[in-house]
Automatic annotation (TrEMBL):
The chain crosses the membrane at residues 30-48, 60-78, 93-111, 116-133, 145-162, 174-195, 201-222, 234-254, 260-280. The keyword DNA-binding does not apply. It holds the Pfam family EamA. Residues 6-133 form the EamA domain. This is EamA domain-containing protein. It comes from the Bacteria. The keyword Amino-acid biosynthesis does not apply. Keywords: Membrane, Transmembrane, Transmembrane helix. It comes from Aliarcobacter butzleri L348. GO terms for cellular component: membrane.
């Protein structure tokens, strides 16, 4: 249970940490992100006992690795902007609701059997999104909505890519993750060079802690799945509901974010949608 709790706490702290730093310059942000991935590479190499000389590079789908490696640092840019413009509560909710994207894509791209219960969850999810965005006073400008949807779509696509990567049983998932971190670091470095301005090493050091948080989330999430191998739905529902509820509370009471009636209704509907999705996984509904 401790692994699950640490993973949840790390996930909550990721958004909290980025929002607290208020990184406004793109170059600073990508220095921060680059440092994050260097830290992830270092930690995964030692904690997952990666043996580079034993990696059979022919087994890996480099197209998926490259796309995922590009998207991860890019999405962090939109995550930062969304946290800045829309707040922690709404950003965390949109990030967690992105789990609906792989379900939609499974029907459209992968020919998965259509089911009415999943269709209901999809509809409820989008209703919750519109409710969360519905109040005119709730930072609902086009730019703010754009960043929220970028987070929603970005994390949803990445989740889909990871599911595709996991299908390849011949390639070790942890090693694939390690290669994705390397790719993400390279992409982040590219962003650093294309944006003008001086290199502020303060953000490099701040990024190390961010990398520890991010890696902690992944590392203990994997451990939690191993610990609850017989009940993965417990991990699913704890992480998703925990982040939504925790992010909402932190946003409301620490960052003083306003929660309008429509937003509250949307949050409850989002929670209900995730519970329904968990019931589908358990084959109860």
């Amino acid at each position: 249970m401790s692994s699950l709790a640490i993973s949840l706490l790390s996930s909550l702290l990721v958004g909290f940490y980025i929002k607290s730093l208020r990184i406004s310059f793109k170059k600073d942000l990508f220095i921060f992100i680059f440092s994050n991935y260097l830290t992830a590479i270092f930690l995964s190499y030692f904690l997952f006992h990666i043996q580079i000389q034993k990696i059979n590079f022919e087994l890996y789908n480099y197209k998926l690795i490259a796309i995922t490696g590009f998207l991860l640092p890019t999405i962090l840019y939109f995550l930062n902007k969304s946290l800045e413009t829309s707040g922690l509560a709404r950003t965390d909710i949109f990030q967690r609701l992105s789990l609906i994207i792989p379900i939609i894509l499974s029907f459209v791209l992968f020919g998965e059997h259509f089911s009415y219960n999943k269709a209901i969850v999809i509809i409820l999810t989008f209703i919750s999104i519109f409710l969360i965005l519905g109040n005119k006073g709730a930072n609902s400008s086009f730019k703010n909505i754009y960043y929220l949807f970028a987070v929603f779509l970005g994390y949803g696509i990445v989740d889909t890519l990871f599911k595709q990567i996991a299908i390849n049983k011949s390639a070790d998932f942890i090693t694939t993750l390690f290669l994705i971190f390397i790719c993400s670091a390279i992409v982040s470095l590219f962003y650093i060079f294309i944006f003008k301005g001086k290199i502020n090493f303060k953000y490099f050091f701040l990024g190390i802690f961010f990398g520890i948080l991010n890696f902690s989330n992944i590392y203990f999430y994997i451990k939690a799945h191993k610990a609850f191998a017989q009940s993965p739905t417990l991990v699913f529902i704890t992480m998703n509901l925990g982040v939504i509820i925790g992010g909402t509370l932190i946003g409301r009471f620490y960052f003083k974010e306003k929660l309008y009636k429509s937003t509250i209704y949307g949050i409850f509907l989002a929670i209900f949608s995730i519970i329904l999705l968990a019931l589908i996984q358990l084959k109860i509904w």
